[in-house]
Amino acid sequence: MTSLLRQLHASGQAIWLDFLDRQFLAEGGLRKLALHDGVTGVTSNPSIFEKAMGHGDAYDPGFRAALAQGDIGAQDLYESQAIEDIRAAAADLRPVYERLNGRDGYVSMEVSPYISNDTGATIAEAQRLWHRIGVPNLMIKVPGNSAGVPAVRQLTADGVNVNITLLFAIEAYQAVAEAYMAGLEARLAKGDPIDRIASVASFFVSRIDARIDKTIDARLAAGDREAEALTALRGKVAIANAKLAYAWYQEMIESKRWRNLAAQGAMPQRLLWASTGVKDPRFPDTLYVDTLIGPDTINTMPPQTMAAFRDHGTLAQTLAADLIGAQNVLAEVDRLGLDLAEVTASLVSDGVNQFAQATDALLGTVAAKRAEIVGDTINTMTATLPEALRQKVEVRLEMMRKEAWPRRLWEGDPSLWTGKGEDHWLGWLAAGQERQVDPDALVRLREHAQTNTNAVLLGMGGSSLGPEVLARILGNAPSHPRLHVLDTTDPAQITEVARSIDLEKTLFIVSSKSGSTMEPALLRSYFFALSGRQGDQFIAVTDPGSDLEKIAMNDRFAQIFSGDPTIGGRYSVLSVFGMVPAAVIGRDVMALYAAASPMVLSCGGDVPPQENPGLWLGAIIGEAATAGRDKLTIVASARLEPLGAWLEQLLAESTGKNGHGIVPVDLEPLGDPASYGDDRLFVHFALTSDVDAEQEAKLNMLEAAGQPIVRISLAQPERITQEFFRWEIATAIAGAIIGINPFDQPDVEAAKVAARQLVAAYETAGTLEPETPVAEDENFAIFALQDESAPDDTVIAMLRRHFAALEPGNYAGFLAYLERNASDAAALAMMRVAVRDARRVATVAGFGPRFLHSTGQAYKGGPNSGVFLVITRDPDPDLAIPGHKASFGTVQLAQARGDAAVLAQRGRRVLRLHLKKSGGGLEALQAAIAAAL
Ligand SMILES: O=P(O)(O)OC[C@H]1O[C@](O)(CO)[C@@H](O)[C@@H]1O
């Protein structure tokens, strides 16, 4: 016997399937439905794909096959599989399409719900899918909201078959019918054919009842006086609404305008009943089929509804019947104040949101599958967090998902931060995708650099720290120069580098985005003179139009590499600022990008926060910071230790402002649980081949003691590039949580100005302004910045008072304007441990002026919890700067004094201690601090 469904089909209403699934297609499910039940079309939507792809492992072989062609992001991976299904379904229905001469046999695929409010993006995406899928019996689904209507017109004019979805109100349907006609007319005006353009208007049914009936039930429960009238409307409104839409359709096809189009071959835009699955168990499960049967319409049914109708549907031409009854129902709706207009309007936006949520879930699963499949190419990360913090992170991740943070970050939406131009600073996102460099130029540079034994990079902050990490972690390739990074004015350090290089076989890289930073300018003068003004031994990396660019041209530098002015220094390592020095030391820059790529894809705008390693980390560090765990303590296995200096700048300069932010703690030796308060977040970086059992054991103890620990593991050193990208994303996100602009550095300039003034005064007077110590002994002289000395103060008494000021949650800073070498670093580390263990506070250390262009921002602009000891000494021997009265030593001292003065002006607790020549230097200071604690 012919199935009821087939009879329905024969009655003039098309039956489409509102479902799609790979296994179902593979088993020939659709072909069977077409054959036995007369099914002539398929609709899909994000929820349908979420059900298909988001659960189980039916798509795993497909995911694997797609990724075997090359790594792609979650959205592309999803799309590759969805398109495969759509094409398979279209192939199954192709015979129907051919037999009916294009009148039916269509499969619909929906544009991303994320762009539903953007007409231009909707048009572009619909076009892209249309061409990519490339089959004639395809329909692209576009929402029928206000942004969708003009898209329908345009797409129709362009010859794309459109299925307009999420129609609830008759007026909305009328608008899309009008857009369809206008699109056809536009084609005619261009002389294009219109006889093969198909369109359907998907009018949603059951969702209206679900919403209205809920209101009715609430009113009934509240004892509404109109109980009887309200009850009579249950399950009636959606059908009445659909009937009236159909009545309008019938009028429309009789209109002169339509008859004109029909005369030229136009196919009517059929009404398609969608959302026909019955939600209320009190209604018959075939309700929205039985009542909506009429010619030239479509009913798209989920499999259960199809099965129900096949089993016990009622076949009669109901759609055009009892129109008066339908009008009465809507009049009653009006009279009873049920506000259908409000219901249908909110159903549109709810529908878009629902599809967006389904897409989030779907992309989350696809991203997780991708991570599993390409897993061993991605650095791993785990986090053990105290329960309260873990919960805050969860809540934040869900909020980020709802508010679409990944997409908004990649789209450059400044409202993620303070809304003050942050969108102009996001060039680093593209830089991570190798879009900022000229690969051929870097290959040539790599070859050219080989003639040198040494390279010296002159730059500060973002222009030096990334290159230093690359040079120290990756090292120079065989027969390529060794890179020295000079980011100082310390005479001894400069002399040491000058001594260790063969001048004639050294390539100098002058690196400065602004091209006007004082230290690289002075260092350039010094080495340019030293080289005998050999411009061909110099290259510049700088932003276009900078002073440095002009000087480099003037002095005939061998090459100038231009940066991207939309990338701030600390986010520049994956741009020319990191890649030029990488090429110089013989590294294959494209291989470095290839190593970064899996992380870049994992952190994409299409990866929901829960699966997005950058957003996840950003949520952890942002939430930790706002909960008082603002001392991000970096622990690294030996080979990765250099990363900390780069990370310090990124975190501190980005987040430490307006009294908020993260204070990075680098190179503080690990202690016992008792050494730490509850203001820490530990981050451990380890190279898998570089296991340090003692470090791991200490971390395990901290973890057992309830300290939060994030562990990041790299299988290969080249994958450090992944951490650059992950941390840039995480920092930007943490900045959004903290509520600051992560791309400016408002407090750095003050210290620079103060130092410049002191140097300028020196250039005229030939001496720095004199100052008087407030306490002094044979080793040290102390200069107080605040009025905090007592008349008979000793150095020890002042140091004692200084460290006694440290309260829980504070940190001690050692700001050393000294040569940065292993012994100074070790001495500072010992002092830090002594202070940490005595006062249970975090400690930081920086060499000046290097840290001024890095953590200095947070010390001045971040939380006022630092207690700083600025350490200076007279340089011996000093080093002259060509063309200047001031020596490097004078500049360094001026920088220290300027820095200390600005810290004091900002209300920071600060003491300056000058190491006297006669004293024992840092060893003596260590002893003094031990005595003072
Ligand atoms: O690359 P430039 O312009 O020389 O700047 C160096 C560093 O100085 C700073 O501007 C801070 O002074 C950093 O943000 C930057 O990375």
From TrEMBL:
Keywords, comma-separated and alphabetical: Cytoplasm, Gluconeogenesis, Glycolysis, Isomerase, Pentose shunt, Schiff base, Transferase
Where in or outside the cell? Cytoplasm
Example of a GO biological process term: glycolytic process
Q: Which CDD domains match?
A: SIS_PGI_1, Transaldolase_like
What EC class does the entry list?
Answer: transferase
Active-site residues, as the UniProt record annotates them: 141 (schiff-base intermediate with substrate)
PANTHER family with a match to the protein in the record: TRANSALDOLASE
Q: HAMAP family attached here?
A: Transaldolase_2
Query: What is this protein identified as?
Result: Transaldolase
Q: Which gene encodes it?
A: tal
